[in-house]
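Researcher: Next entry in the queue.
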Amino acid sequence: MESFEIENITREVQQAGAFVERLQEETKKTIIGQEHMMQRLLIGLLAEGHILLEGLPGLAKTLAIKTLSKAVQASYHRIQFTPDLLPADIIGTMIYNQQKGEFTISKGPIFANFILADEINRAPAKVQAALLEAMQERQVTIGGHTYRLEEPFLVLATQNPIEQEGTYPLPEAQTDRFMLKVLVDYPKPEDELEIMRKNLYAQNFGQVQPVIDTREILEARKAVRKVYVDAKIEQYILQIVLATRKPSQFGLDKLEPMISYGASPRAGIFLGKAARALAFLEGRGYVLPDDVRALGHDVLRHRIGLTYEAEAEEITAENIIDDIFNAVEVP
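Model: Structure for this entry, 331 residues:
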């Protein structure tokens, strides 16, 4: 692609992304620190990918999606997953109206722009599958009628890394549908002090005003899809994904007995889409290798299966991803 074409794309990206700074400033009124999490939420929103958040209780996972939905002026529903939840509790069901003598459709909470699936691993597989089908197909079937879900449609699922008793871990085939798995850590001490002070003393803390609407998000998505990805970047992404499957071909023989299965083709698709969204957030009309590296852990950590040998030697997916990025040549 010619340089003037890339310059035109960059100008279009900067115009379409004029709202990004306003949106970030508005969310900071409530979410202090946690820049990594908030950036990943925006990437998921712009790249049309769902996000799995994993972190301890009280780290603002629920508050983050609620804040983002208010700032975007979008509909928001929170679904608390529990062992007694049924698929109909999520997607809706047919209800018999005695007065009219007919069935009417009652839509479930899945019909919103932002869905928070809180503690998704607390509900049985049938309920998880109902949600994940809606995520994949962007539609729901109730009583023989199919309903499209309104765009933008973003699912944020949370799970607690502790207290695994009585939970239903997501199967690998279902976690693969999430674009990113984001690990949420404790805030920095200075951020935590500010959080504490604002909750104790600030009267208007937590009041977020809409700064954009869903129409602007949909327009921004069009600009994201135009961000230029060079053939060398495409090959770089492909090599990273292939290295998770056949590490010995990249001089990583030591990883061969540590990996039970590598990343699926979705990994390359999502890594490319997420890298485009990151370039958009930074006002660029083209993807850099640094964009791919920045998102590698979030895209790949839930797509690499570890063997018992890896677990015995306390080798994590993070270690494997680090080794792969160090081994694959950067274009």
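Model: DSSP finds 14 helices and eleven strands in the chain.
Researcher: Noted, moving on.
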